[in-house]
Structure formats: structure tokens, C-alpha cells
Amino acid sequence: MSGEAIEFKVDWSSRSKLRGPGERSLGGLLEGLRQRLAPHAEGLSISYVDDRAMRKLNREHRGINQTTDVLSFPAEPEKGAYQHLGDLVISLPVAEKMAKKLGVSRKREIETLVIHGFLHLCGHDHERDAGEMLELQAQLERELLEEEPLPMALKRGRKPGSKVKVLKGGARVVVTGRAAKALTRSQEAKKAKAPRKAAEPAPKAKVTRGPGRPRKAETPASAQAPAAPKRTIRRKRAPRTRSGIIA
Predict the structure, then answer these.
(1) Which domains can be identified in the chain, with CATH numbers?
(2) pTM of the prediction?
(3) CB-neighbour burial class of residue 33 (10 A; exposed 0-12, middle 13-18, buried 19+)
(4) Does position 145 have pLDDT exceeding 50, yes or no?
(5) Which has more pLDDT, 144 or 197?
(6) For the chain, first and last CA: distance in Å?
(7) Residue 116: phi, psi to the nearest 5?
């Protein structure tokens, strides 16, 4: 019957030492999200994990070798099949760190992550839109939680000294330790091998005479006076003297 309410089932699982909120704490929020965004959905699954498991999933599915807060895996059931909306995976250690940064409870941070992940399951993508998803997320937090939205733009941060390495397929991997140092050396070596443009010679400076005695004006050759003839000096010959001996 068209008027029958669709049952919405949530499968819960946890692989973390920390405890996350369950059906009693988040059931009302999930039902409100389903009615608002996906009234046709019949269920979804939520898994709590630690950073190690989250890092592995993030590396395998997104090519990013570091942990994150929430991952969404939308389902595409066929028409007539069980309408499973998808799977949400939440890192409880990351949620705990962010809750401490924001000064809220772990449950409050996870509520924001559930709304964020639910929107991804419904096809929204804040990395491609013009801010519509995050605006809708803030609106849902105010309406369904009756609280001000928590920021999602805080830097989660990486380990000091880590580097982002781009693989051949275009995937990005965060490397640390020796791998980060090797990547730094490789980048520096490429910069050193890059041909440098020869420096252009500096233009010659124009020499200007400073203050001083002015140059004498040159007179044309026609106006010059004729040079005086050179005088030749003749030497007087000494008179011949006669000897006193008669031959």
C-alpha cells in the first residue's frame, strides 16, 4: 500500500577500542535524515573503526595514505531490490580528537559526521559543488539537532615532516619518515638539474661628463692660420789657418 510507512533498519558494528553512540542516541537523527533526504531508503550500515583501519580504507579507495573522519560508500540497488542506502565508516579516534578541539562531546561530533556522510550517500559532494552541501548540512544540524553547526573546515593536520607523493596513476599518498626525506631529496635534485637561463648582460651605463673645465672649441681647418716656415740655421765655417813649415 502506498500509505504504509517504510521500515528503516540500521546495522551497527564496531572495530574500535572506543565506544560510539548507537541506535538509542542516533536513531532519531537517522530517521529524520531518511525522511528529509531519502524517503525510499530501507536501511544503511554504520561502522566504527580505529585509525589503522580507516587509513587502510582511505588508501585503497581514495589513494590517500592517511586516516580521516568519515567515509561514505553509496549503494546502488536495483529496482525492486532491498533499498540499501550505503555504508558509513567513522573513525572514533579522529572524532575524539576533533571533539576535544571544538570543546564538545564525542557524540556531538559524531552527529555532525553522520549528517555529513549521509549527504554523501545521497549524492552530494562538497568537493565539486559551490558550497551547497555544507550549507544544507548546517541547515540540517539546526533543524534536526536544534544546535549550531560544527565547523568542518578545521585542518585535521598531518605529521610534521610528512610529504604528499603523487603516484603514476595520479593518486596522492602521504609519506613520512625516510620516504618523506627521499622525496624531498628527489625534488631538490630535479630543481638542481633544471636548466637555468643565462643572465643577460647589463646595459652599458651612459657616461656623462661631470662639472669641470669646458672643452676648447675646435676650429675648422680653413680658418686656421698658416704655419710659419721653419728657419734653417747655417753654421759659420772656421777660417783656414796656414802652417809655419815650408815644404
Answers:
(1) 9-157 (3.40.390.30), 158-193 (no CATH)
(2) 0.62
(3) buried
(4) yes
(5) 144
(6) 180
(7) -60, -50
